[in-house]
User: Which sequence fits this backbone?
């Protein structure tokens, strides 16, 4: 069905081995978010990269030993990708990627490139059993009760293989959040007027954070507890700018120099966003020439490689929550109104990028929090005048 998938995976691995991991995930992200207008969107370019590496490794294992590529740089690229996988697991990300291949294909030893098997033989003719096998593996990998990444009607006797990847990120914060506030999250139109408001639970901390500012956005980097360079960059669009614009241009903000950390109050909503995506068509439409710009490679590859992957599916889950129970504050309105220090309040539509110094692991945009956050009731009705009042009185605050 997807004749070019094998070729694309080879070309991208050639790109990976030239140590452009940051550029690869950024360019993959740009392609993934192109023309997407969902109000809540989340995706992992890193797991796309991992899956493509597995497809390539599996294809290499089909060759006779004498014909397999011997390339120290390629071995090093797999090793580096393995280190990144270990880094994410140390940050308590749940993730996995596997090729489910038809049992009618020649049986051979599955290659192991992350100290685990990358492929599983399966009988797709037994639709129910095959579906359960795939879904149970993903649910166990992401520590979820159930998974429905595959349904029986998607399988038949002609299915040769399905690539499945998943990642689940729960923030493990370097700076502990201490209190819980019930306050309003707003969605604004391009003129800056409030189009929708929702009372949501916000977690609060007072700590040192690095920030950034451009003509289109304000941002804050919230570090994770593992590694000073890994964390979540949150971007708030300025008036007249849409979150889609920020996500389309995320490379600009990825490379923007952050300020030195300084003390401030941070209010961050508690939410969970998830997405299951079919990416087979995306693979076909990749702009390989663009992805390969600025790279050099000399290895040969087979443009007519036998492709046995009928579909590629990706599950991405992000759960933003505190690391420990919070002290619930009764009157958030008064607390915020009396703050005299600098404030960064994520109380409007935003973009988030989970990253380290050179790789994007997950990125997404949140227009509103309906259905993504626990239901709570605020002590006061929403009043736009209150926001304007605080903005005028607190010059340093980001309300």
Assistant:
């Amino acid at each position: 069905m997807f004749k070019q998938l094998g070729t694309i995976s080879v070309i991208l691995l050639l790109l990976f081995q030239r140590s452009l991991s940051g550029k690869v995930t950024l360019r993959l992200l740009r392609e993934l978010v192109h023309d997407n207008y969902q109000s809540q969107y989340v995706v992992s370019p890193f797991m796309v990269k991992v899956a493509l590496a597995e497809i390539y490794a599996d294809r290499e294992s089909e060759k006779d030993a004498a014909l397999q590529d011997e390339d120290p740089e390629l071995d090093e690229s797999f090793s580096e990708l393995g280190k990144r996988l270990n880094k994410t697991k140390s940050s308590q990300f749940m993730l996995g990627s596997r090729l489910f291949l038809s049992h009618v294909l020649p049986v051979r030893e599955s290659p192991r490139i992350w100290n685990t098997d990358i492929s599983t033989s399966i009988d797709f003719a037994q639709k129910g059993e095959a579906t359960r096998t795939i879904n149970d593996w993903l649910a166990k990998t992401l520590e979820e009760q159930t998974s429905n990444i595959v349904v029986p009607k998607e399988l038949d006797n002609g299915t040769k293989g399905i690539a499945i990847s998943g990642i689940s990120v729960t923030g493990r914060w370097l700076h502990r959040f201490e209190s819980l506030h019930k306050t309003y999250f707003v969605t604004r139109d391009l003129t800056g007027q409030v189009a929708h408001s929702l009372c949501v639970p916000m977690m609060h901390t007072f700590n040192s954070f690095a920030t950034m500012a451009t003509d289109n956005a304000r941002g804050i980097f919230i570090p994770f507890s593992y590694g000073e360079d890994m964390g979540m960059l949150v971007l708030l669009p300025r008036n007249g700018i849409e979150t889609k614009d920020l996500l389309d241009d995320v490379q600009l903000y990825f490379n923007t120099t952050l300020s030195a950390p300084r003390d401030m109050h941070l209010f961050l909503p508690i939410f969970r966003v998830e997405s299951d995506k079919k990416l087979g068509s995306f693979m076909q439409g990749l702009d390989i020439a663009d992805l390969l710009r600025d790279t050099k490679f000399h290895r040969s590859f087979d443009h007519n490689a036998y492709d046995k992957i009928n579909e590629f599916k990706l599950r991405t889950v992000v759960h933003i929550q505190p690391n420990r129970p919070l002290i619930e504050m009764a009157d958030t309105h008064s607390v915020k109104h009396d703050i005299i220090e600098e404030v960064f309040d994520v109380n409007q539509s935003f973009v988030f990028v989970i990253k380290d110094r050179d790789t994007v692991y997950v990125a997404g945009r949140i227009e509103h929090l309906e259905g993504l956050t626990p239901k709570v009731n605020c002590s006061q009705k929403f009043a736009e005048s209150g926001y304007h009042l605080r903005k005028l009185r607190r010059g340093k605050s980001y309300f």
